[in-house]
Amino acid sequence: MLNYSASSFGALLKTLRQRARLTQQQLAEAIGMHRHAVSRWEQGEVLPASKAIVLELARRLRLNDQEARQLLEASLTAPAPLWAVPFHRNLFFTGREQTLEALHQHLSAQRAVALIQSYALHGLGGVGKTQTALEYAYRHALEYSAIFWIEAETIERVQSSVQRIAQVLQLPERAATNQHQIVEAVQRWLATHQGWLLIWDNLEDLELPAHILPPTWQGALLFTTRRQALGTLARGIDLQPMEQEVGVLLLLRRARLLSPEAPAEQIRQLVADRPAEYAAASQLVTLLGGLPLALDQAGAYLEETGCSLSDYLQRYGQQEAYLLSRRGNPGGDHPHSVTTTFRLSQERVEQEQEVALDLLRLCAFLHPESIPEELFVAGSAQLGPSLAAVVGNPTEFDLALAALRTLSLVQRQAQTHTISLHRLVQVVMREQMEPDEVRLWSERVIHMVNAAFPNGDFATWTQCERYLAQALACVPLLAATARELVAAGELFFKAGRYLVKRGRFEEAEPLLAQAVTLQEQHYGPDHPALIPGLILQGELFWKQGKFACAEALNLRALTIEERHPESPSSQVGEILNNLGLLSWEQGKYAQAEPLYQRSLQMREACFGPDDLEIASIVNNLALLYWKQGRYTQAEPLYQRTLQIRKQELGLQHPDTIFLHSNLAILYRDQGKYEQARSLFQQTLQAQEQLLGPQHPDVASTLVNLAILYLDQGRDEQAEPLVQRSLDIRERVFGPKHVVVARSLYNLAILYLDQGRHEQAEAILQQALDIQKQELGPNHRDVGRSLSGLATLYMRQSNYAQAELLFEQDLQIREQDLGPEHPEVAFPLTSLANLYTERGNYERAEALYQRALCIREQRLDACHLAIARNLAALANLYKVQGREQSATPLLRRAYSIFEQHLGVEHPETVQTRNRYLAVIEQKSR
């Protein structure tokens, strides 16, 4: 029996209250409770419901630390009048409030009188079932006429517990040598008394209670068991590992870095005062999967050795198996370590159904959460004859899982057809294996997941996402395999392809790199089998803006193709198309067009005019014509592409939908704003539905729609679109990516147009910092941002600084793209505008002329950029009084604007008015 009682707590509280010269009413009001609560405490009828109430009493009574601890311990250790619980209360018990409240609602003594109540806490070994039951017993001790505890692991321990109960009850048969007599005596007592609680701890054999309990009773039963299937014995509460914050609190309390009675609020103070300690504790809780036994074990080590949390975390990373196997001293009421606890469970499974243990071994190498059951069926041929037979037979598979669920080693989610297990079960299972076993199961898992993983096309995305975690779990398994597995390369290629299509580039990159490396190791550096991986890697780098890397990969793939002309599935056409696209991205239009044309001829010759890959080539050729201002040639190509994709993929495929965005851009640049707006909005809605609202393609469409609104002067509608695009790209690529810098540039130009100069300057500087760091100081994106700043300074009449930045942009673009590239014309025109504004007409004219010459050589004669160049040069002539020179330029510019933008467009109207004004001036 324990030393404290309810009456000792009450007497102590009364003494301390009277010393403080407080009445029961005053103390009750101070802690926000009714006077009857204080009265009942002092009379020994009940105890405070929580440690928090006791601590509040101590504060209101102005107790010192020693007195507060004495009052707390008195409240924690008071048993019921009839008490047969063999364990002290766990002073470090933390959390489980919802579980304890649920038990109290269903097992309270008053409810038990009217209705037999039976509940069970079930879950994995070490999850805290015993400690939760023990806390419930102490917390509600005075609500029951008696509380008994049966250690239920074996029949022998049950009998010993029953004998202890007979001793507490002082039954005449307690000294009987016949065990059956003692059992019958306890049964009679249970049948004739009310309001008791009987706890069965660690029950494995569900038949045992029937040998002890009377046919009818008026008490409450609480079981703890690893079994998930309880039959008619009891209703179950599945006890899960601890949530992060609660786990951290338990760890810190157990390590005595916080006092046992410290409330959860002190965690926030710890974060502020000792952030490194808190971070280490939080990481450790994650590594230990919130398992209370593991956290208690780690806390005991910290207390015993005095090492810091950060040091323990480092040791755990190096000696995980050892630290999981070391229980420490003292072991408390759970003498087994994490390793021993799980090993005992595994031995039990092996005794009952050995093939179930093989299933657990397989799961030990998978991602522990949401393992799809169909994985095992799809890869059954790789699992060995015994396990293959089990997973291929639904009934046998059910029975194998039942054996594991009996000990809560796995959980099965019937609705999702998945199973899960705790990470530490996996750790202990793998640590028991010899290297050859680790290699065997690692290879089986890789083969199994590869057999199930789809090819990554749009129609398979749901399956791909379902299996993705398992594919990623195969990456670290390669270290244990004895050879380079072709299956691993295939798996990483498919998973990487899926991630590229979903716009998850950062996740895709290491997978694709690993896939190509494995193929190189297996086939050699020049085998045709490498080509799909190289092409896909090139696509990834292209989408990340790494054009040089993408081009190198495609050129390598082309070289391999040329060395193996006998290859049954030539991909030369696709490679040429990719190289053409990369040339287009870098402004090498003259190189891009013949690559597209050659690719198109090869593909049409082999597969006919309506092949799906042809759609990609035709689309890229249309993009080239659009960029060159050859709008009338671009539109029928887009329409042809659209027709092929509708026919082959359907209207609701992402590739079909994205084409609408390209067509909308063409309409926007032609001034067909209503058609463009409608297409952009349709594209955006479909992309959000199919790809999700955070996909990079959604960000691109948002930007393009925003530019349309800016062209129309609808800045208020454009701004939220640009901001949302920026948010998506920051989330997908990270805050320092070059694509993010482009969105920052768009936002800054918007602010510049709105006259919000201070905001525009700060954002342009942010974009510049990213671009210089990621691309180097001489990239054209850097030059574009410099021009943005220069435009800002020019509007502020800071001409010297503006001129310097425009010159830098010009120099960068000439070095990066060559002196005759169309993009070089932009800083030339900007400088010319600056000199015009400052009255330096001679220099301005030379720059306008050079820009016009570049554009006329590289762009279509009716390109809008040429029209704007002509209008600017004509304006310069008009300012100089050279109407004769301005007239043909304005006439030509007006013709282009009218053709592409229509007669009502502001640029068309403005140019017509200038032209008419010049004609009028000449006539005078």
Your description of this structure?
By secondary structure, the protein is mainly alpha-helical. Among the domains are: 6-238, 3-Layer(aba) Sandwich (Rossmann fold), CATH 3.40.50; 244-336, no CATH class; 860-924, Alpha Horseshoe (Serine Threonine Protein Phosphatase 5, Tetratricopeptide repeat), CATH 1.25.40. Strands 1-3-4-5-2-6 form a six-stranded parallel β-sheet. The chain is elongated and about 130 Å long.
List its salient traits.
single chain; 924 residues; mainly alpha; Rossmann fold; Serine Threonine Protein Phosphatase 5, Tetratricopeptide repeat; 6-stranded parallel β-sheet; 3-stranded antiparallel β-sheet; 9 strands; 68% helix; disordered N terminus
The level-1 CATH class of the domain at 6-238: Alpha Beta
Low-confidence stretches: 1-7
CATH architecture of the domain at 6-238: 3-Layer(aba) Sandwich
The name CATH uses for the topology of the domain at 6-238 is: Rossmann fold
Widest sheet, order of strands: 1-3-4-5-2-6
Query: Can you count the helices?
Result: 46
The description of the largest β-sheet is: 6 strands, parallel
Overall pLDDT confidence = 88
Number of strands: 9
| Helix vs. strand class | mainly alpha
The end-to-end span amounts to 120 Å
Fraction of residues in H or I helices: 55-70%
Shape descriptor: elongated
Summarize the SSE layout with pairings.
Elements: H1 6-19, H2 24-31, H3 35-42, H4 51-60, H5 65-76, E1 82-84, H6 97-107, H7 109-114, E2 117-122, H8 129-139, E3 146-151, H9 155-169, H10 179-192, E4 194-201, H11 208-212, E5 218-225, E6 235-238, H12 244-254, H13 265-273, H14 275-287, H15 292-305, H16 309-318, H17 320-325, H18 338-352, H19 354-363, E7 371-372, H20 374-378, H21 385-391, H22 394-406, E8 411-413, E9 418-420, H23 423-431, H24 435-452, H25 461-473, H26 486-501, H27 505-523, H28 531-543, H29 547-563, H30 572-585, H31 589-607, H32 612-627, H33 631-649, H34 654-669, H35 673-691, H36 696-711, H37 715-733, H38 738-753, H39 757-775, H40 780-795, H41 799-817, H42 825-838, H43 841-858, H44 864-879, H45 883-901, H46 906-923
Parallel strand pairs: 1-3, 2-5, 2-6, 3-4, 4-5
Antiparallel strand pairs: 7-9, 8-9
Helix pairs in contact: 2-3, 4-5, 6-8, 9-10, 12-14, 12-15, 13-14, 18-19, 18-23, 19-22, 24-26, 25-26, 26-27, 27-28, 28-29, 29-30, 30-31, 30-32, 31-32, 32-33, 33-34, 34-35, 34-36, 35-36, 36-37, 37-38, 38-39, 38-40, 39-40, 40-41, 41-42, 42-43, 43-44, 44-45, 45-46
